[in-house]
Every structure is written in structure tokens, then in C-alpha cells.
């Protein structure tokens, strides 16, 4: 007999039931804790190894993407809140510098500041979601008390035994270990698990899987391998399988994003009928392992790249710039993600992306923003093949410029160099390892001609970012017992990956000053300035002035006139000057400061200020074939903040012996009507010319990018008037546009009198 509710007996009983429910109130809530409103849409987990179930690297899933937290300003208060988000009662400690290994993907939070009373991590102050200047080497971790919150039911915490993660992947050469040159491009796929490195079963292994593995290891593509050879070899070797059932689509940035299965500890039969997965990768042009590969790549016809990276401290990182209609521009970070970043990285000859950077983390560009809302599937061969929106000036600003950090092949170059004697790991005397595998030895570098470009390469090889200074004397740093100079005559362009790629004397060491006090040293930094001239202002303000000699005594004292001025009949006569304004912006991530300290600044009585740099800018008039026919002064400027962006405060002012420099986000303006802001063209004959302005021409101060320090304009001079047009930063045009520029510096209608 089916039971019947009392409320179904009659209409009268229905009314009584309704009244009772209103009087007694609604049913009591469940005892399980309610999901915090502030954490809606977020998931938390612990990752990394070696670790216990209640400790690890903190990872947050937001908008479907897992990321980490930077350790900058991290405190126990933040650790307490995160442990409660993870279902533990409190934190007993926290870790910094990626103790549990570096994560992947976004760094969601940076400069996290909590009081400890917040109910959710979203209530803590920070730089904002996804806005960080950290690397994954700074990932924060927590150690929670091994006591769960009552009634907390959540799958956020990763139990080591059941929820393993693939953190690291490597290729182990099956033959010739120790003799193959780096990077390793072919071998057995191994993944790092808590109990060590294990192989992957190749049953069901596909080219898509290989593509993902190669991307993680810093290679853009994969190629077929001789599976029969490796199967035969596998029969003679013992293997430890830890992973099977790997199935990737080929668009993943990391193997952990693929479908995969881990063998359990009690699995006695592993990979029956299969063998270890083997992958062969194709290195990009920068990392071609042998001369044969380099020659093959050189034979392939390659057009000009349509994507580039600018402003990065390390290879494979930087602000993304794209070429459109012959002009380079940036990409807006709206909807910028790992898929799009990985397309850029592979297009440039690197692997997949480690990070998709937003918020102009690699410095701000200037002029055009070409793309916005870029969406890629991951299969595209070029960023231009992805769907995107064309940008307008109102849509985006350069504070939203997108950037990337790519996976790079391991080359081991950082093991061939070290610093000694410095106060921190970022400075010291440079020591390099020379000699073959059988007889390696460490030695010093001769300081003769050692400068900023050489220091840039040394800091890059060390993995320490940019060079603040390249030092030719290092007597104040203790060299220990090392006294032998093993490298001399080092001359770099600044783009090399290691010092041994620079020109040098080889095994024959020739050093003018042989004492150890005159050996090379560096001071490195993770950030650097980046100066850029506002080219449009030069074109808008250029004009000719015939200035009387009696008004040029100060200018002559500062060597601002051409050499023929010395033979003039002073104070009678005049000099013909091409005048223009220059506005120099600092778009980098560190202030531009003069190399010399205040004690060595030079006072100039005529102009009433100190000069902090011997050479800051060159002004030149060149013929179309590059011959110099006139030049501006080479005396230094007084560096100060004339104007700044809205949210930036001025720091530097020349008056009253003030500090000199240019703050990030500020610019120094030299008006056309001040002394020496000109080129003396008195002796220049009528014709077609190129006006060239070069900032920091002797590389006295380190910058993140020297390729944008030169500006060029076409100009036509008829002996009385001058036309200046087509002004642009040296690397702002495509190669073809630059060739046209140099081929025809002709006349246009923007006449200047």
C-alpha cells in the first residue's frame, strides 16, 4: 500500500499544512559550509613536489586557466587565507622562490597583501588579476596544518597518490649519452614524478603528442623517428614506466593539459607489448645544434618575419610586435592567452609559451597598435592567421601591450660562466670555462675594450637579465685564487647567446694590462630603461635659422658648431642651423640614469648646468649612401623629467644640482630654440640627404633595446629651404620600406622655411 501524505486528505488539511509551515519557518540549512561568495568561479589546488598532501605550490584556476601566485610581499596572513580556501584550518608556514618547482601558465596574483581577516583571497589587495612582473621562479607555496575544516567538502587539494601532475619533461638520448651536443633534440620521453624520472608508454602515441612535448622543450616542430631502431634497442634495456594513455590534440601548451593516465604503485604489468615513447624535435634557427642543420635552414627561402619580440631580458621573451603595411606595431592584451602566445613562440622558432603576459609587462611600445582580441586555436602557423580585431585609437592603449615568455631548449651555456667577488649574485668578476671535455679550466677575461654590449651578453648567458654596467677594472672584488686570463679581445654585437659566440682572440690571449685588477666584470639587473625619440615632433618642428656669430659663443665653447666655424670672422657673419625639437621617452622598465656619478659631472658656465654624460646624442646629415656631411654637437644633455604620463610623478630635475635621469613613463624635451639643439649645415651643398638622430650612441648606459635608438628622416635642401619628411624610428619599418627610404630621399610638399 502506497503511503499518502496527510496534506493530501482534504482541502481543510491542505490549509492547515500551509499555516504550520509558515509558523514553523523554512527548513534548517545544511551544516556543510557555504561556498564563499568572494571565491565564486575560482578553484584552488596544491601542486609541485616533493611535498605532502597539505603543502605545495599554490595554484588558482580563474576563467578556466590555472596559474600561480608570486612571492613578492607574500605573508603568513595570505598563507592562512589560502589554506582556508583549500579546506585546512590554518597555515603553519609559507615558501618562496618556487620551492616546490616553477609552475606554468599565468601568474594570477602579485604583491598580495592580506590582513588575515579576509574571508576570501579576492578581498586582499594586489596588483590585479594577471598583472605581475614576476617569473615562475618566484612562485609562492604554503604549508597548511594537517587538519581539515569541519564539513569542508571540496576537491581542490591534490592528493599526491591519485592526482599526479606532469611538472617536467625531458628527452634522454638512448645512445651516445654525454657525447651529443646540446640541445638534445631526440630521445626517450621522460616525465618527472615524485619518485624520480619515468618513461612514457608509447601505446597510442601520436604526432600530436610529440608536437606538445617538443613545444615544452623549446622546439617549434617535431619529425618522424626510426621506431624500429628504438624498439630493438628497448628490448635490451630496463625501463620504468610511469605514464600511459597520453592523448593530445597538438594545440596544448603543456603535456599536463593533455588526457593522460598514471600507473598506480600496485600495477605490476606496465606497457604490455609497447615500449618507451621516443620523440625527435626540430630546433629553431637560433638553436640549430649542428652546422649541417644551420646550412639546411639557410638554404630554405625565408621572407621577412611578420612578428618579433622587443624589450625582453632573455631570448624568447618580450613585447609582441607585428608588421602591417610596412610598419611595426603592438598587440592589445584583450583575450590574450597561452594559445595565442604559443603561436607567436613557434612562429619565431621557439617552443610553446610558458606565459602570456599582459599589462605591458615587457615595456610599452609607441605609435601603432595593430591587433586586438586575438583568438587562436593553436594550430595556426602565424599570428596573422588567428582571428582578431583591427584596432582603433580608442580601443586600447600601450599600457595594455601583450607579451610572451617562450619555452627554450636547454643549451647549458649558463654552466660555462660564473661571477665571483660581488656583493650579490647579480655582480662580480666574470669567469669563464674553456678547454675541451677532458681538460676544462676556469679563467678570467681581459678588461681591454670590455663594454656594455659585452656585459649584456654575459648577463644573458648567466640568466640574470640586462647589464647595468660593463666594468674594465675589478680590483675591488676579490678574485680568490684565480689569476689566469683565458679570454681577450671580446667584441660582441649584443645579440649573442653566449660569450664564445662573440669575436675574440681564441686560444691566443693578448692583453695590454695583465694584472687581475684589470679583468672584466659586470653588474646585471632584471630591468632596464629603453629610450625612444618622438620622430613626428622632429618632422613638425624642423626649420632653418641663420644665427649671428655674436650669439654663438657658448655654443662654440661646447663644440656645437662645425669645424669651419673656427675660421670665421668672429663676431661678424652667421651660421646656418637646422633646428628641431627632440622629445625622448623612456618606455623601459627602469629609470635611465647617467653612467657617471655626481662627483664627475662637468659644470658649464655658459648654460648654467651640469653635464652628466660625455656623449648622449649624435645629430648627423648623411648622403643617401651614408657619407656624413654635417653633424650636431656631441656634448651631453642635462637629463630631467619634462613631462610624465598621468599616473607617473617626476623624479629628476637639473636645477640646484639635482639628480639627473629620465623616469619610466616620462620624457625629456629639448625645444628647438635652446642652444645646441641643431645641426650646423653652413657647409652643406644643396641635394637630397638623410637626417639621422642617434640616442646613447656609444652604449654608455644599458638599455633593453638599442635597435630603436636611431631615428631617420628624408630631407631635401635647395640652398635656401629644407623639406623634412618620412621621419621614423630605425626599426619601425619593414626591410622593404627601409630600402625604398634609402633609395629615394626625395621632395614632398611639407615645405619648411
TrEMBL record:
Q: Name one Pfam family in it.
A: Lysyl_oxidase
Note the InterPro entries from the entry: LOX-like_protein (IPR050912), Lysyl_oxidase (IPR001695), Lysyl_oxidase_CS (IPR019828), SRCR (IPR001190), SRCR-like_dom_sf (IPR036772)
* Record-annotated disulphide pairs: 70-134, 83-144, 114-124, 248-258, 332-396, 345-406, 376-386, 492-502
Which GO molecular function entries does the Swiss-Prot or TrEMBL record give?
copper ion binding; protein-lysine 6-oxidase activity
Its signal peptide is 1-25
EC annotation from Swiss-Prot or TrEMBL:
1.4.3.13
Q: Name one GO biological process term.
A: negative regulation of T-helper 17 cell lineage commitment
- The primary site where this protein sits is cytoplasm
Please list the residue ranges annotated as the SRCR domain: 44-145, 169-282, 307-407, 417-525
Which purpose does this protein serve, as stated in its record? Mediates the post-translational oxidative deamination of lysine residues on target proteins leading to the formation of deaminated lysine (allysine).
In Swiss-Prot or TrEMBL terms, this protein is called Lysyl oxidase homolog
Organism, as annotated = Erinaceus europaeus
Amino acid at each position: 500500500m502506497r503511503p499518502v501524505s496527510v496534506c493530501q486528505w482534504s482541502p481543510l488539511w491542505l490549509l492547515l499544512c500551509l499555516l504550520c509551515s509558515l509558523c514553523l519557518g523554512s527548513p534548517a540549512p545544511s551544516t556543510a559550509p557555504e561556498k564563499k561568495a568572494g571565491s565564486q568561479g575560482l578553484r584552488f589546488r596544491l601542486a609541485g613536489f616533493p611535498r605532502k598532501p597539505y603543502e605545495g605550490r599554490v595554484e588558482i584556476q580563474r576563467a578556466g586557466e590555472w596559474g600561480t601566485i608570486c612571492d613578492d610581499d607574500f605573508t603568513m596572513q595570505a598563507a592562512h587565507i589560502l589554506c582556508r580556501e583549500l579546506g585546512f584550518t590554518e597555515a603553519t608556514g609559507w615558501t618562496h622562490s618556487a620551492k616546490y618547482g616553477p609552475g606554468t601558465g599565468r601568474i594570477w596574483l602579485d604583491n598580495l597583501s592580506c590582513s588575515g581577516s579576509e574571508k576570501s583571497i579576492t578581498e586582499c589587495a594586489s596588483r590585479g588579476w594577471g598583472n605581475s612582473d614576476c617569473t615562475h621562479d618566484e612562485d609562492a607555496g604554503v604549508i597548511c596544518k594537517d587538519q581539515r575544516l569541519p564539513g569542508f567538502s571540496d576537491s581542490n587539494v591534490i592528493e599526491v597518490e591519485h592526482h599526479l601532475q606532469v611538472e617536467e619533461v625531458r628527452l634522454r638520448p638512448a645512445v651516445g649519452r654525454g657525447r651529443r651536443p646540446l640541445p638534445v633534440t631526440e630521445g626517450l620521453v621522460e616525465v618527472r614524478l615524485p619518485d624520480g624520472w619515468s618513461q612514457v608508454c608509447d601505446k597510442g602515441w601520436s604526432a600530436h603528442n610529440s608536437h606538445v612535448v617538443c613545444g615544452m622543450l623549446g622546439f617549434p616542430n617535431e619529425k618522424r623517428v626510426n621506431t624500429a631502431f628504438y624498439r630493438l634497442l628497448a628490448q635490451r634495456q630496463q625501463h620504468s614506466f610511469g605514464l600511459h594513455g597520453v592523448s593530445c590534440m597538438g594545440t596544448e601548451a603543456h603535456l599536463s593539459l593533455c588526457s593522460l593516465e598514471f600507473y598506480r604503485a600496485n600495477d605490476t604489468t606496465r606497457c604490455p607489448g609497447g615500449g618507451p615513447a621516443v620523440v625527435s624535435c626540430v630546433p629553431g634557427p637560433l638553436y640549430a645544434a649542428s652546422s649541417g642543420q644551420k646550412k639546411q635552414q639557410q638554404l630554405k627561402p625565408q621572407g621577412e618575419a611578420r612578428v618579433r619580440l622587443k624589450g625582453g631580458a632573455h631570448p624568447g621573451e618580450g613585447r609582441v610586435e607585428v608588421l602591417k603595411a610596412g610598419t611595426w606595431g603592438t598587440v592589445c592584451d584583450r583575450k590574450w592567452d597561452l594559445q595565442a602566445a604559443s603561436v607567436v613562440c613557434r612562429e619565431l622558432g621557439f617552443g610553446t609559451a610558458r606565459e602570456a603576459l599582459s599589462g605591458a609587462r615587457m615595456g610599452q611600445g609607441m605609435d601603432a597598435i595593430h591587433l586586438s582580441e586575438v583568438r587562436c586555436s593553436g594550430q595556426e602557423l602565424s599570428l596573422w592567421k588567428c582571428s582578431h580585431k583591427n584596432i582603433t585609437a580608442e580601443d586600447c592603449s600601450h599600457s595594455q601591450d601583450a607579451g610572451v615568455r617562450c619555452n627554450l631548449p636547454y643549451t647549458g651555456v649558463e654552466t660555462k660562466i660564473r661571477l665571483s667577488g660581488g656583493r650579490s649574485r647579480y655582480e662580480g668578476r666574470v669567469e669563464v670555462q674553456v678547454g675541451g671535455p677532458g681538460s676544462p679550466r676556469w679563467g678570467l677575461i681581459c678588461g681591454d675594450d670590455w663594454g656594455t654590449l659585452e656585459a649584456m651578453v654575459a648577463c644573458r648567458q648567466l640568466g640574470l637579465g640586462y647589464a647595468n654596467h660593463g666594468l674594465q677594472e675589478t680590483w675591488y672584488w676579490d678574485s680568490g685564487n684565480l689569476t689566469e686570463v683565458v679570454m681577450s679581445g671580446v667584441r660582441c654585437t649584443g645579440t649573442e647567446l653566449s660569450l664564445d659566440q662573440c669575436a675574440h682572440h681564441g686560444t691566443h690571449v693578448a692583453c695590454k694590462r695583465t694584472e687581475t685588477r684589470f679583468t672584466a666584470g659586470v653588474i646585471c639587473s632584471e630591468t632596464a630603461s629603453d629610450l625612444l625619440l618622438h620622430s613626428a615632433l622632429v618632422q613638425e618642428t624642423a626649420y632653418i635659422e641663420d644665427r649671428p656669430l655674436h650669439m654663438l659663443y657658448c655654443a662654440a665653447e661646447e663644440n656645437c658648431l662645425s669645424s669651419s666655424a673656427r675660421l670665421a670672422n668672429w663676431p661678424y657673419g652667421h651660421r646656418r642651423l637646422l633646428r628641431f625639437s627632440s622629445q625622448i621617452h623612456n618606455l623601459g622598465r627602469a629609470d635611465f640614469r647617467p653612467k657617471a656619478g655626481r662627483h664627475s659631472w662637468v659644470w658649464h658656465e655658459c648654460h648654467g648646468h651640469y653635464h652628466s654624460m660625455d656623449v648622449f646624442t649624435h645629430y648627423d646629415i648623411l648622403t643617401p649612401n651614408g657619407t656624413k656631411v654635417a653633424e650636431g654637437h656631441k656634448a651631453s644633455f642635462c637629463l630631467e623629467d619634462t613631462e610624465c604620463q598621468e599616473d607617473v610623478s617626476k623624479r629628476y630635475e637639473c636645477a640646484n644640482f639635482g639628480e639627473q635621469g629620465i623616469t619610466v613613463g616620462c620624457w625629456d624635451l629639448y625645444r628647438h630654440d635652446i642652444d645646441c639643439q641643431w645641426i650646423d649645415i653652413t657647409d652643406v651643398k644643396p641635394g637630397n640627404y638623410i637626417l639621422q638622430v642617434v640616442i646613447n650612441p656609444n652604449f654608455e648606459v644599458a638599455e633593453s633595446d638599442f635597435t630603436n635608438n636611431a631615428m631617420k628622416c628624408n630631407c631635401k635642401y635647395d640652398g635656401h629651404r629644407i623639406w623634412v619628411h618620412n621621419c621614423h624610428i630605425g626599426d619601425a619599418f619593414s626591410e622593404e620600406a627601409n630600402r625604398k627610404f634609402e633609395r629615394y630621399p626625395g621632395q614632398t610638399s611639407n615645405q619648411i622655411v
